[in-house]
Design brief:
15 helices
């Protein structure tokens, strides 16, 4: 039986963040299964914080794409490196989103965390008394405390309360790993609510592509062994240590470190890399070019500061694996990120914040092309089996149907 599904997420394609593409895939696939899907999101503005030119000047934009009804809401253009401006942008989105939720007819909703991005729409959902799946992508406020974003006790307490409140009002809480499940159980979330659904990737769109391609030619990378970080250049990733590893390998002119993307740490990284001939910075690329971007790297980096890998399994790892490229993971031991690489046999793990170990791992992969090919093939096979968009959509659909049927049964009993 088709359902009316409401998806609430600030970021949605053509935004370039990982959650934007994840929710676009999920929404389109839910619609393809015959469901009536509506997305309430902000106008495109990620990662720069600057609203795209075609989406300025109106409070509400409506469109239909791939069977999904999309309601895009105004937010101001801001400098995302400044926390208060970023929160102001999110508040503008939430106020408008809450109004939109109150005016929609739906059977079940999916809201993407963290709570400080969707709390007001969730309040509106609670007023509507419709069941919700709350999707947790990172454990807050822990990740914000470690990044130095949340310093004041009142702010930390507020974020804890908001997360607990959203989890309490959800019919199911989707987490992306067993580590997340344990963390939320320790915070008192009922184990019966917690459902592990790993992030997903379009394995048809992203597939192994020749290393030498039109993009690598245009970026002048074909004569280099490319060590790539593609995605957000954030404060939690310890990318300054990657630059230090590049400095340790600068004597080999073939090894080139390429940062593709933007983020709060970009400016400082460029200052730190000044004078290094083996480091390059390339702007964010359109999603349509993602397969070529990934193909242009010989190896890809998953770098996180010490203590952060317990809180984050970057969705980009699955894209790298789908592209058939090995991962060099600079993350804490015995974490979900470390376990993924080891279980899939798709790369090499080194301790975080250790430029010497990172440089050594990169040099070993540089020398051994056969090992790179083996690791890349392992990753591709693993992600096709365990993290396809079809599998994730099926899991979400089952949860949504369970909540919707329970609600309908409750109404029937009351009516009777």
């Amino acid at each position: 039986m088709p359902m009316r599904i409401l998806v609430v997420t600030p970021f949605y394609a053509p935004d370039l963040g990982p959650s934007a593409s994840l929710y676009a895939m999920l929404s389109e696939d839910l619609a393809r299964l015959g469901n009536d899907v509506t997305v309430i999101c902000a106008v495109p503005h990620y990662p720069s914080g600057c609203v795209a030119e075609p989406f300025r000047g109106r409070l509400v934009w409506r469109e239909e794409r791939s069977g999904v009804r999309i309601i895009r809401l105004w937010v101001p253009s801001v400098n995302r490196a400044r926390l208060m401006l970023r929160l102001w942008s999110l508040l503008c989105y939430q106020v408008l989103a809450a109004v939109m939720v109150l005016g929609r007819k739906y059977d079940v909703s999916i809201a993407s965390g963290p709570a400080f991005e969707v709390a007001l729409p969730v309040v509106a959902m609670n007023l509507r008394r419709r069941p919700m799946i709350y999707s947790v992508h990172e454990i807050y406020p822990d990740v914000g405390i470690k990044a130095g974003v949340f310093r004041r006790r009142w702010a930390i307490g507020l974020v804890v309360w908001l997360e607990s409140w959203c989890c309490a009002r959800a019919g199911y809480v989707r987490v992306l790993s067993e580590g997340y499940r344990r963390a939320l159980e320790d915070r008192g979330v009922a184990s019966t609510k917690l459902q592990v659904i790993g992030d997903w990737v379009d394995t048809d769109f992203i597939s192994p592509t020749p290393r030498h391609n039109a993009l690598s030619v245009s970026w002048d990378l074909d004569e280099h062994f490319v060590v790539m970080h593609a995605g957000n250049l954030g404060l939690t990733q310890g990318l300054e240590h990657v630059v230090e590893a590049a400095a340790g390998l600068v004597s080999d002119p073939r090894i080139c470190f390429v940062f593709v993307g933007d983020g709060a740490a970009r400016e400082n990284l460029q200052v730190k890399a000044a004078g290094l001939s083996n480091v390059r910075f390339i702007p964010f690329q359109p999603r349509s070019l993602l397969p070529l971007v990934l193909a242009s790297g010989d190896v890809h980096l998953n770098s996180l500061k010490r203590g952060f890998a317990t809180d984050s399994v970057p969705s980009k790892c699955y894209s790298i694996m789908a592209a058939g490229r090995p991962i060099v993971a600079a993350v804490d031991h015995d974490t979900d990120s470390w376990a993924l690489v080891q279980q899939a046999g798709c790369g090499v793990c080194v301790p975080p914040e250790n430029p010497t170990a990172l440089a050594h791992a990169i040099r070993e992969l540089y020398i051994d092309a056969q090992d790179r090919e083996r690791l890349g093939a392992n990753g591709r096979a693993y992600v096709v089996k365990h993290h396809s968009r079809r599998a994730a959509t099926g899991q979400f659909c089952r949860l949504a149907r369970s909540l919707a049927s329970t609600t309908l049964l409750r109404r029937w009993k009351i009516g009777g």
